Every structure is written in structure tokens, then in C-alpha cells.
Amino acid sequence: MHAARNYLVFLQRCGRIAFVGDWRYYAWMGVLTVVSLLGLNAYARQLADGLISTGMSDQVSWGVYIANFTFLVGVAAAAVMLVIPVYIYNNAELHDLVIFGELLAVAAILMCLAFVTVDLGRPDRFWHLIPGIGQFNFPASMLSWDVLVLNGYLLLNIHICGYLLYCRYQGRKPAKWFYIPFVFVAIGWAVSIHTVTAFLYVGLGGRPFWNSSIVGPRFLASAFTAGPALIILALQIIRNVTQYRITDRALLTLRGIVQVSMLINVFLLLNEVFKEFYSGNLHVVSSKYLFVGLHGHHALVPWIWTAIGFNLIAMVLLVLPLSRSLKWLNLTCVLSIAGIWIEKGMGLVIPGFIPTPLGQIVEYSPSLNETLVCLGIWAAGLLAYTIFLRMAVPILQGRLSRANEGQVPDPALGGAPAPDAAAGH
Amino acid sequence: MPLPDPTVSPGGSAPSSGVTRRSFLRGTVALSGVAALAAALAPLRKLDDFTTVERFMQKYYKELTPEEMAAVLRRIANDVEHEYGIRPHVRDLKPMDGVEFVYALNLTRCIGCRKCVHACVNENNQSRNPEIQYIRVLRLPHGSLDIEKAEHNYAPESVPEKGYFYMPVQCQQCKNPPCVKVCPVHATWQETDGITVVDYDWCIGCRYCEAACPYWARRFNFAKPSLPKDRLNPDMAYLGNRPRRQGVMEKCHFCIQRTRAGRYPACLEVCPAGARKFGNILDPESEVAYILRTKRVFIQLKEEMGTSPRFFYYFDI
Fold first, then answer.
1. pLDDT by residue (tens digit) across B14-33?
2. Cis peptide before B4 (omega within 30 of 0)
3. Are B252 and B134 in contact, with CB atoms under 8 Å apart?
4. Is B47 on the interface with A (CB under 8 A)?
5. Complex confidence, ipTM
6. pTM value?
7. Does residue A425 sit within a domain?
8. Does A406 touch chain B (CB under 8 A)?
9. C-alpha distances in angstroms, A282 versus A257, A278, B133, B212?
10. Is residue A367 a contact partner of residue A84, using CB atoms and an 8 Å limit?
11. B211 and A204 in contact by Cβ < 8 A?
């Protein structure tokens, strides 16, 4: 009883602090809320009118929703790139940062689930997917695997973050048996979410562009590039806004991960391009459409060459010592994220549909309504991540703890506890 | 809005009575938040026909008892009558024992007139706007079966044209259907007579089957189907041509409402060239059994996919 009450007080205080901050916090949250609501409004319109409000068609039946979903599964999976150094190689610099990565994974998975939901024609029938109540086509359908691994990964990360934060809040040492096994399961699980998502495409024999064994490894390489790059940027924002101690060495450790992953990513891309174009068999049409255009249709050509350009510049910068300076590292990270978002989103999903299995070329570009839904989900995801950080940072700094229960939340986003915090307003 | 903390410690500020500037501000923010949310959701008012409690709760086709099925069929008939002003004849036709349907199409004879395409639309109550068609006729240059060379939108003065042949493609009713394998909710499956069907009331609209189909045979209702009242075909089957709803998948089902009642598919009946043959492959006396036994060459489209279609293309040689 007592434990439950303590836990409720903890949750309530976490909930309260999400609504407290300085003007920058309110401005940021206000903007995100407005964009989320615009997205929600666009989704309501889509529900009423049908998916005809998107740019999708029977020819290109998946678009930016599934593209963003695929990219974000990678971001979620990349949380392990913080976990592995800490729990397997005992890297002390990254130790306290693991939670930020895992919270990012939670936010990313929530966004993934949102992107899949908005792609459904009948979201009211989601219960048909629930094992036991509905008709779950497991193990035959890779989509049923994806439902399991994504939700499992969400629960694992919620458990690990939640438990560690609650222990820190209470000022006690976490019991190893209650989280370490989950950490190791989550490492394998992270690889599985992205592999299963790759298999979603790879398993389709009728789509030669996807039906290639290199898609899985490319997914992982690009995820382990874009994910840690995103974390490098996020950590610097956290450091600037909250004065939470994050060392440059920790950021440079992540740089090492981005560096190796980007090299592998570009290498795998080269493999794919060679195989597609050198052999010259008829299955090259989708790649032709993507890289050089097909029969006068070339909507994706500028995009993919932008992506390749970004990736190559980022690769060169990563190899040079120049990117040890944070300014250059940040540029590199932005280029990597943008490059991989294009390559894995538009560059992977769309050409799989062009031309159709009957040789028809119908191009795709997202509609305004569809774009608003995407922006809304990204804003809602950032909103969720900001709230998670708003709760986690004061707990990790010891400013929100069992010891100071009963005090009014401190609007400061970071730093030492203000001496007059208890005085309120 | 944050709740007042019940555990205010001595020295902390007690919740003040009366309206302070801060609580007024909070109230304003909360109210405008609720108003913004309501405004964002306003388009949902158009959703009146999206679902009902009965439709939401409806069970999976294979789990419906005969009584429940009867009730569902009555409800569908009522819905159709309400919407189109015609009382339809909706049945749940089961596959017949000892029957496996096969289609054979004579590429030498097909003249590319697309009469099959439109007969299908008239028979199967497809949406006219946006128009959904189950059959796509490809025009191919003489001598090549390379589908990349297919022209979909050919529109000459008259057909057939010199130097081309025509290949109608519809659901190939595969023995090893990729669409069935990938569906996450078993909303599409293969019946014992070889027809792959869709439970329109169970499909969640993820379009994974559409991505999986190597024949581009599946169609999605991107909008609420619109069908003029006078075009409705009232002879309906549950797994066949009953009107569909927004957001679900559909495709050719070999005119289940006809073929399971001993008639030919609509596309066959309309064909002016006699290019289309349909029947029970398990009956050695059937026309399709004769064709597959005697023709020197017949092909299954994209045979290398391993899908093993029940739809064969043959030539007069």
C-alpha cells in the first residue's frame, strides 16, 4: 500500500513538473502543441475523407507514413549504441547518458506506432490485431512480428528507464537483477526491431527492389549512423538548456560510432548499386527510376543524389580530425540524419512501387494534408521526448527526489536546486 | 492543469482561495487548449457512417455461427436498401465439394477491347468514383512478354492494332498467395475451391497485401465508394460483390456470387472474342481441363515467383 502510494506521488510529481518551466520551455512546448494539433486536424480530415487525402494510390500504396516509420524504427534501435559501450565495455563517460538514449527510443517507438496507425484505412479495427481477441497472423505475417517486437521494445525501455529513474528519485541503488537482464534483452531486441522491419520489405518476392538480402544490413548500418548522430545533437541541447554534466569525451565516443557506421553504410550502398547496375538484368528498373529516372519520370533523382551527397560529405568529415570540433561534428550529424532520412524513407519505400508489378509508372509525392499529419507526429514525438527529459533531468540531478517531496516544482530547467524553491510564489 | 499538491509542507504556500492572476491565466490556457482540441477534431463530424457499434463488434467471418451470419446478412441487406433503395439478395455462398476453379485465357484471341473490364465493374459493384477496376488489360509489342514494355493507357480508334497483342491481368488466384501470407489479421484467405477472398468487414486497410501481390491485382478503397443507385447489382455474396466501405481492400474473386451458383464469371460472358475459359479443373470433362491437357504451350504469369497461379494464358498453336 505504502509503496503504491509512494509511486503515485512520484508519478504525480513527474506529471506536475512537465507543466513547469521557464519561458523558453513554454515557448517550445507551445509551438510543439500547436503543430501537433495541426497534425491532428489533418488526420481528422483524413479519417473523414479517406486516404484519398494523401498522395498515395493503388500504384504507390505506401508513402511518407511508412517511410517515416522505417526511419524512426532505426532511431529507436540506435539507443543500443549508447547501451552497448556502457554495459558491455563499461564506458563510464556514457553511463549517465544511457537513459537519454533510451527515452529517445521510447519517443521514437511512440512515433512509429502513430505513423503505422495513420497509415491504416480502418484504424477503428485495430483490435483485430490484438492476439487472443482478434486474428493475429503470427508467425506468417512479418507485420505481426513487427507489432510484437515494437511493443515489446517499448515495454522493455519503459521498464528500464522507469525503474532506474524511480530508484534515483528514491535515492536507493537499483537492484541489478531487476534491470540488468532487461538491458541485455533490449540490446538483442533493438537489433530485432530493425531486422524485422527490413524483413517486412525483403520478404516480398514480387518487389525485386526490396527482395534483396542487403536491405537488413543496410537498415542497421544507417540506423546506427543516424540514431547516434541524433543523440549527439540531443545531448548538446540538453547540456546547454539544463547544465546537466555531459562531457565532450562522451560526444566523441558517439562520434566514433557514427564514423564506423557511416563507412559501413556507404560501403553497403556501393555494393547494392554495383549489383543492380552491372548485371543489367530487367530487375534494375526501380533502381534506374531512383538514381537516373525512367522513361522521363525522375521525381526521386534529385532527392537520392542529395542524400548520397550528404552521406559522402558526412563520411569524409567523419574520417577527418576536423569533426572532433563540435561545430563540425554537428554539421556532420545534421548531414547524416538528413541524408539517411531521405535515403531510407523516400529512397527505399517509394521506388519499391515504381514501376508497378505490371510495369506502370505512377509517381508519388505527399499531399499537403499528409505532410501536416507527418509534422504533427514529429511534433508530438518531440513533445513526448521533451516531457520525458523534463522529468528525467531533475531526477538525475537530485533536484526532484523523495527527500524534497511536498515542495513546489522548480521552474528552472537545470542547475543546482534554487534555495527558495520551497517558498513558491 | 496541475492539481494542488495535497502534501504541502509547513512553510510551503497553501492553495490560495479566490482567483489569482496565475490561476486565471492557467484557466485561460486550459480552456483555449480544450477549444483548440475540439477545433482540431471538427472534421470528424463528417464520420457519421464510418462505423456503428454492431459493425465495430462484428466477428471474423470464420467465427460467425450460422445464426450470426444470418443476422449479419440481414443487416447488410438493410444497409444496402437504406442507401440504394433496392432490397438486395445477399447470400453467404460456400465453396462446392470437388471443385477447384481455374481460368484460361487465349492470348491469340484477345483483341484488347476492355469489355471484360467494364462488365466486371458492373457485376461487382465497384466504386465508380474513384473508379476501381479488377482487370487491367496490357498492350504488349509483338513478340515480347516483358511486362516493363506494357502500355496500360492505350486508346486507339479501334482494336486490335497491328504489331501488338493484349494481355488482361486480374487476380491470378494463386495456390501459394503472397497476399494471404502477409495479411496480419487473416482478413484474406484461400477457400477450398481455390478462390482467395477478402472479409471486407475484417480488413484493417494496411495495404501490405497490395505491396505483396506480384500481379498488382488488389485494390484499395481510398475514399468512400460511390455507386449510382441505378447501377447497383442486387445479386450479392458476402465474400463477393456486396458494396464495400472506405478503407478496405478488394479484388477479383472469380465472381463468387455467380460461379458458386453455377454461372460463368461476368468477364467471360461478355468477351466477344471467346478468349476466356473458366471451369472446374478437377472435372476431366471440363473445358479448362481439356485446354491444359491439349495445348502445347500455356504460361503462368511470373511463374518464377513460385505463386502457382490458377490463371493460365495459352495460345492457339
1. 444 567 887 888 888 889 88
2. no
3. yes
4. yes
5. 0.93
6. 0.93
7. no
8. yes
9. 37, 12, 27, 19
10. no
11. yes
Cα separation, A391 vs A402, in Å, equals 14
Each residue's pLDDT tens digit, A313-362: 999 999 999 999 999 999 999 999 999 999 988 899 999 999 999 999 99
Q: How far is A121 from chain B (nearest CA, A)?
A: 4
Q: What region, left, alpha or beta, does residue B247 occupy, with left being phi > 0 and alpha being psi -120 to 50 degrees?
A: left
d(CA A47, CA B241) in angstroms, rounded, equals 24
- Tell me, what CATH number does A402's domain have? 1.20.1630.10
Grid coordinates of B108: 491469340
When divided into structural domains, chain A yields a total of: 1
**Count of domains forming chain B:** 1
Q: Is residue B48 part of a domain?
A: no
Q: A406: Cβ–Cβ under 8 A, 6 or more apart, which residues? A: B5, B7, B8, B9, B12
A263 touches chain B (CB under 8 A): no
Distances (CA, A) of A414 to A25, A153, A170, A282, B179: 12, 30, 19, 59, 53
* Phi, psi (deg, nearest 5) at residue B220: -115, 140
**Cell output for B258:** 455467380
Which residues neighbour B273 within 8 Å (Cβ) at sequence distance 6 or greater?
Answer: B106, B109, B110, B111, B113
- Residue A420 forms part of a structural domain: no
B32 in any annotated domain: no
Q: For helices A215-242 and A326-344, give the axis angle rounded to 10 degrees.
A: 140
pLDDT band at A80 (very low <50, low <70, confident <90, very high): confident
Tens digits of residue pLDDT in B124-142: 999 999 999 999 999 999 9
Alpha carbons A229 and A330: distance in angstroms, whole number: 8
- The domain in which residue A64 lies consists of 2-412
Whether residues B46 and A49 touch (CB distance < 8 A) is answered with yes
CA–CA distance, A242 with A268 (Å, rounded to integer) = 39
Q: What is the CATH number of the domain that holds B217?
A: 3.30.70.20
A221-255 tens-digit pLDDT: 999 999 999 999 999 999 999 989 999 999 999 99
Q: CA B88 to CA A398: how far, in whole Å?
A: 70
Specify if A207 maps to a domain: yes
Whole-number pLDDT of residue A421: 38
Strand B101-106, strand B311-314: pairing: parallel
